[in-house]
Specification:
Structural class: alpha/beta
Radius of gyration: 25 Å
Largest sheet: 5 strands, parallel
Helix content: 25-40%
Number of strands: 27
Strand order of the largest sheet: 4-3-5-6-7
Distance between the termini: 71 Å
Length: 610
């Protein structure tokens, strides 16, 4: 096999044969002055630093020389545990140029998960952020079963005897070093992405340049974006969505990445950048809608009337588009007027007035959240895929059609079908090679015909749209033998703004119960609007009779939309939000049901007594 063309910037005629180093070289040659990467230092009001594509190409060359001096070579795995900061993004590309395989690790990963990943990928080097990460990784250096030999530390003055990241850039670039760079072949591994582990140990998903390019080309076919579009990068790089949106697609599109190292500050960055595209997992869209609803609830009644009228017009306009119809001229005129006079000023306050493509994936999106944003004229294009499918496998699209509540049609790089038990099967050019074994080999997870069993349950309608039901392993089977989708019930419960999170329970039981978590943004606003005062913050509100009465009404309303088996008979109201730091959510904000069940075992048991 021959190596790919090196740093000339020339690309193979077949886009699927392109590699990431070739795209970097192309960008440096064709768009040398276009901004590629912007980031801030830790200070809240710090100035932004920006690298152009030419600067990225030169900087990653120097950085690759530093990694080479540490003994990193072709095919070596290198672990990265840092926030979305420049050292992470640039190291990722530098390692790929060197022929190594970057492996990002979630910052919230438990020590036992980190140990498993380090042993599984056999990496000898890890690049970590600061003192907190050093404390977690350092014991592995003395672990006889872990090949890890060295740590590089990004934050200055946090090295504690380990190699400072800045030293990598002080290494001289060897003569003829260009001959060692940019030789990746399309079939070479580009990265290993470890699943976030809702159950069991994380598995290392091996993805090649060709699979990533296939997915990038398929995504470009379903989105409508301006050239060199901005992307706000705030999800972890260990998440396949952010690797595609924040690293690979920007190289493919020569677009501009804004790094947001602290996800709690994403709103500030959105207001600064006013991006044309915005992606969020369902929990992000839920929190955004809760925050906006809280503001709306405090507006004067006459202003709310004007807003509600504008929302109705926007949803009617979206309805025509959803059906593939052209809105009547009279509606188009009313929508343009409502958008200009009412909706855009509100969206501008949050930095979302320029959004032309908004999307979600990772878990079923609550339909009421989708409809809420449709009231602003923003159609959240829900998509579906797995780490194993290099991200998106199906997507709604402003170009090819959408159905609110579905996850769209298959993108060009895959085909899907439904097995007899309802499980979604997928195959195609962007489906992964297999799972990494500790000896470096890859274990395929495909059947003899190339189909991947995804573990998700769904159906395909007559127009080819995929509708998700739930994870196969998470389906509840009641004591009467009825199958219940927990996500369906949970999304119905969360339609009330007071309920921010929900988990239903009922395996081998005669009825369902639920744990409900008050929404941290919406609950105080609801209390203020309804004259409810309670000491003790959310905990006090969770005990207030008026709040509990309203939640009773919310559960009853949800039950009217569910069949008898799906209805929730009893619940407990909680005030402490679930998150990755406390273990109830994965780093990609999916529920760890087993963790929640164990943590609240007494509460769940109590709901079945008396």
């Amino acid at each position: 096999m021959t190596s790919a063309p090196r740093t000339t910037g020339d690309l193979p005629d077949d886009p699927a044969d392109r590699t990431l180093p070739q795209l970097l070289a192309r960008n440096a040659r064709a768009y040398p002055r276009l901004p590629a990467l912007s980031w801030q230092s830790a200070e809240r009001d710090a100035d932004w630093t920006t690298f152009t594509w030419a600067e990225v190409h030169e900087h990653t060359r120097s950085l690759a020389a530093g990694y080479r001096a540490l003994g990193v070579g072709r095919g070596d795995h290198v672990l990265l545990m840092m926030a979305n900061r420049s050292e992470h993004w640039l190291s990722d590309l530098a390692l790929v140029r060197l022929g190594a395989v970057p492996v990002s690790v979630y910052g919230t990963a438990a020590p036992e998960q980190i140990t498993h990943i380090a042993r599984n990928c056999r990496a000898r080097l890890a690049v970590v952020e600061g003192a907190a990460q050093v404390a977690v990784w350092e014991p592995l250096l003395a672990d006889a079963d872990t090949p890890l030999e060295r740590l590089v530390v990004a934050e200055a003055d946090a090295e504690d005897g380990h190699l400072p990241y800045a030293a990598l850039l002080r290494e001289p670039v060897p003569e003829r070093f260009a001959e060692e760079l940019d030789g990746a072949r399309p079939e070479d591994p580009l990265t290993v992405v470890y699943t976030s582990g809702t159950t069991g140990e994380p598995k290392g998903v091996v993805l090649t340049h060709r699979q990533v390019m296939a997915n990038a080309l398929a995504l470009d076919a379903v989105v409508e974006l301006p050239p060199h579009v901005e992307h706000i990068c705030y999800l972890p790089f260990a998440h396949i969505a952010e690797r595609m949106l924040g690293i690979y697609l920007p190289c493919h599109r020569a677009s501009h990445v804004y790094l947001c190292a602290d996800p709690t500050r994403v709103g500030e960055v959105v207001r600064k950048v006013r991006p044309a595209q915005f992606f969020g997992v369902p929990r992000i869209w839920e929190k955004l809608s809760a925050a906006v609803r809280a503001v709306l609830s405090l507006m004067p009644a006459e202003q709310q009337v004007v807003l509600d009228r504008a929302f109705e017009i926007a949803r009617e306009h979206v309805g025509y588009r959803e059906r593939g119809e052209t809105p009547p001229a009279e509606l188009e005129e009313r929508y343009c007027r409502a958008r200009e006079d009412v909706l855009l000023p509100m969206l501008a306050a949050g930095g979302l007035d320029r959004v032309t493509w908004s999307a979600s994936a990772s878990a079923p999106m609550p339909l009421d959240v989708v409809r809420f944003w449709a009231g602003f004229g923003i159609v959240v294009m829900d998509a579906w895929g797995l780490t194993e499918t290099t991200g998106v496998a199906t997507s709604n699209s402003p170009r090819t059609g959408f159905r609110l509540g579905s996850v769209g049609r298959p993108v060009e790089s895959v085909e899907i079908r439904i097995a007899e038990d309802g499980e979604i099967l997928v195959r195609g050019s962007s489906v992964f090679s297999g799972y990494l074994r500790p000896d470096g080999s890859v274990r395929s997870a495909l059947d003899a015909d190339g189909w991947l069993a995804t573990g998700d349950i769904g159906r395909i309608d007559e127009d080819g749209y995929l509708w998700l039901t739930d994870r196969k392993k998470e389906m509840i089977i009641t004591s009467t033998g009825k199958n219940v989708s927990p996500a369906l019930v949970e999304n119905a419960l969360k339609e009330h703004p007071l309920i921010g999170q929900a988990m239903v329970h009922g395996d081998n039981r005669s009825y369902l119960v639920a744990l409900l978590v008050l929404d941290a943004e919406a609950a105080p606003a609801w209390a203020a609007a309804n004259g409810v005062e309670a000491a003790g913050g959310l905990a006090g509100l969770a005990q207030h009779p008026a709040v509990r009465a309203e939640v009773d009404r919310a559960v009853a309303a949800a039950n009217t939309r569910l069949n008898r088996t799906e209805q929730v008979k009893r619940y407990e109201l909680l005030a402490e939000e679930w998150g990755p730091a406390t273990g109830e959510l994965t780093p990609s904000l999916k529920m760890r049901r087993r963790v929640i069940r164990d943590k609240y075992a007494d509460s769940l048991s109590g709901l079945y007594q008396g």
